[in-house]
Amino acid sequence: MNTHRRTPSDSFTIMNEIVLPNDTNTLGNLMGGRLLHWMDICAAIAAQKHSNQIVVTASVDSVSFKEAIHLGDVVTLQAQVSRAFNSSMEVYLEVFAQNIPRNEIVRCNEAYYTFVALDSRNKPVKVPELMPESELEKQRFDGALRRRQVRLILAGKMKPDEAQELKNLFLP
Amino acid sequence: MNTHRRTPSDSFTIMNEIVLPNDTNTLGNLMGGRLLHWMDICAAIAAQKHSNQIVVTASVDSVSFKEAIHLGDVVTLQAQVSRAFNSSMEVYLEVFAQNIPRNEIVRCNEAYYTFVALDSRNKPVKVPELMPESELEKQRFDGALRRRQVRLILAGKMKPDEAQELKNLFLP
Amino acid sequence: MNTHRRTPSDSFTIMNEIVLPNDTNTLGNLMGGRLLHWMDICAAIAAQKHSNQIVVTASVDSVSFKEAIHLGDVVTLQAQVSRAFNSSMEVYLEVFAQNIPRNEIVRCNEAYYTFVALDSRNKPVKVPELMPESELEKQRFDGALRRRQVRLILAGKMKPDEAQELKNLFLP
Amino acid sequence: MNTHRRTPSDSFTIMNEIVLPNDTNTLGNLMGGRLLHWMDICAAIAAQKHSNQIVVTASVDSVSFKEAIHLGDVVTLQAQVSRAFNSSMEVYLEVFAQNIPRNEIVRCNEAYYTFVALDSRNKPVKVPELMPESELEKQRFDGALRRRQVRLILAGKMKPDEAQELKNLFLP
Amino acid sequence: MNTHRRTPSDSFTIMNEIVLPNDTNTLGNLMGGRLLHWMDICAAIAAQKHSNQIVVTASVDSVSFKEAIHLGDVVTLQAQVSRAFNSSMEVYLEVFAQNIPRNEIVRCNEAYYTFVALDSRNKPVKVPELMPESELEKQRFDGALRRRQVRLILAGKMKPDEAQELKNLFLP
Amino acid sequence: MNTHRRTPSDSFTIMNEIVLPNDTNTLGNLMGGRLLHWMDICAAIAAQKHSNQIVVTASVDSVSFKEAIHLGDVVTLQAQVSRAFNSSMEVYLEVFAQNIPRNEIVRCNEAYYTFVALDSRNKPVKVPELMPESELEKQRFDGALRRRQVRLILAGKMKPDEAQELKNLFLP
């Protein structure tokens, strides 16, 4: 692998989990917080593969939980880096739930997590560039700038009217 | 308690957790996903207190992790309902980390989680109104409409140029 | 906060837990040992807040489990230091269980845990005095001497007939 | 086994646990609450063996933690029923910690837990009598009455001056 | 997917886990039993995908642990069905450990687990045939008969001198 | 205890576990992988008692799961060293499941685990000899050579036709 430039498939990571009783609420559905925890681990592994560094979670973008996931379902998480900045990486994540006896798979969630790579002295360190390949990977790569503006505004580090990419969205 | 109208303090919920080894990455810092899990449980208890119903997580808004939380720290989570809609509730959440021997407390995160109340047949059910009392509670109550538009846009259920409250933010 | 004298409210600590499947026996009731574990963590945080030191559990006084706590209940634990001795602290603890859909709260337990504060070399270290404020806090403060005699007798460090406070209890 | 009368060895139960990182505080010592949890499980198995019924914890007598137990130690718990009453059983429990590389075993704790046997409708049910055999088992059997008076007084179900066995302890 | 015949890639399953403190012994190495547990879950998901049924573990063949896996390593498990019999499936499993900062991947283990598919009344149920595709998959498919003879001998259900495939191995 | 020679009873280790919800699959049966994990811990304690050293799992021989173990059952594991080689020990293990209300005990499994003893620098270290006492212990001691040949063949470190003990099994 090239250590300066990497593709999304270099960091592609799959996790499978079975929903056990302690992962569910009293209705027998997977608790949202447990899924957020699994998503963080899966996305962190992808960011580690991209950077070959220890990483820490910097942020998670909004996540909505549309589909109930049930006790005994197999949850499949897929993550890959969608864009690299200086020392941070945006990771794109999809979640599927599979009811094995009914042979049904449902796409449940997508999300973006951001991680910072740290060296052994706990300081941010430069990460390789991301080179998107497929059309979809290029779209996500381009959208990363817009999502980054949203994060900076939400963190109070940018004023809304400086966010040119976002303004274009809301203007006719 | 009035069962039709409730105040934020009716649902106020505190959780304390000690950061144990399995909660940390190899740098000894609390993993983001574990914190998201704790936040979900604390916010869900607040939504249950408001609605007297079983609740399921509908969404979590963007969360950024600015401060590293360390092994052995006491993490304090505080949650209260910030606005009730028909069958859903927005919960506001703050997270603090305390290093006891150094007598230091740091405010680490704030977040908004949204929950839907379900009856015993698993169907959405009406929840009591929220009556904000303090000035801060009223600000969060008003901001809830704007945050709801963001969620609807992100979930693909509203077009950006229909979101009047948001458009105002980006226009001079 | 005064570092030589503290009030019970300086160490007041609340924990909320949801009873999950793995916390229950085959009847669906919270296991006593799990509750004792949560009580120890909650009381330890209170003792750490009072002393600003790492603490270790020295003893737990008798605890009786009168009320069954059920799967899905919200368990609320409240702890505060009831008296400080040289390097040890007695912590008073109350436990409540809440059935959210039925809107019922039951007071389940009270208990006294004792902790010793240790410095970074693992040696006992002096802790601040406790200044009780309310009438109830003063009663618990006074009773602490009697409870301490019971602990010393049970640990074989005091003979029953030297325990003057206790003897008064049993004499007409 | 006789189903009306049983000996302490009929219910004798051993548990071994290794102290893992999540069981310890930041000093690397086993947390008291985790040990209380293990003790409850071990004692409950002994009470189940005696009664052939599901059991629930009714109370734990005072426990003091004299010896620090360390990360990696093997903890051995031994439990056996010390006396049976109508539907309740008192269980005697001893705890040992073993540092394998140093070949050191330390006796850390003893404790009494009380359990109630429940039938399938969740109602208390009669349990077999206990027939002590060794001299030590007979002493514990006799002492059970005195410990029961302490529990009744602590639970507010008996007045101290009615507890004849206890009064004898404090009178010259 | 054809419900009567499936290929190994139809059941291919990947799991990634990070080695956390509680997974390790006091030398900081992953405990063998924890790895066997993860392997069982990963192989069970593969068998469920092949059969669209709930499955239970019937046996695990000998596993040797040649490489120490360390705290913080990313463990990758890959499983796929290697042969289907009437109601049972043999699953082939490989384990890799990755030290991210050093960019090292080590192949640690391979193993064969066997599962039985059960219907909703808990009875064994017929599973689809396996059609191997690659040369390696065909070799594993053929070897399955020999491994099955070993299991039958070890379970006392076949005499060694009836195991013709095995005898060939030991004869010149 | 003699530090050069030890008997199987010197290392005899018992563990009792209650099957909790998270240990079971959706049929309410104990998952095979969880049992393998418990077996590893119990066998490791036996090997540590024999050697007074930290030990790591080297291999587990084939294990078959004949009996379903159910939610709420008490699982009893018994382990003892069956033969010591230079720095490795073979441990024999039996597993029983007990349904307390039905007063039924079932013998579920037996297995052989092998461990290597390590010194504080992580290097293999010589362990005491094992002196079998009972007839059964002597049979297991003798069989250990044959099982060791199987392990060496399976690990690719011995050719089948060099395994004289095994060849005798398959020849008339």
Task: Write a structural description.
- The structure is a homohexamer of 172-residue chains.
- The first copy, chain A, is an alpha+beta fold.
- Chain A has a single domain (8-132), classed as Thiol Ester Dehydrase, Chain A, CATH 3.10.129.10.
- Helices cover 27% and strands 33% of the residues of chain A.
- Chain A is built from three helices and eight strands; from the N terminus they run E-E-H-E-E-E-E-E-E-H-H.
- Chain A has helices at residues 32-51, 135-154, 164-170, and strands at residues 5-6, 13-18, 54-60, 63-64, 74-84, 88-99, 104-118, 129-130.
- The longest helix of chain A is centred in the N-terminal third of the chain and has 20 residues, at 32-51.
- Chains in contact: A-B, A-C, A-E, A-F, B-C, B-D, B-E, C-D, C-F, D-E, D-F, E-F.
- The interface between A and B is large, with 44 and 44 residues.
- Strand 4 (63-64) of chain E pairs antiparallel with strand 3 of chain F, so a sheet runs across the interface.
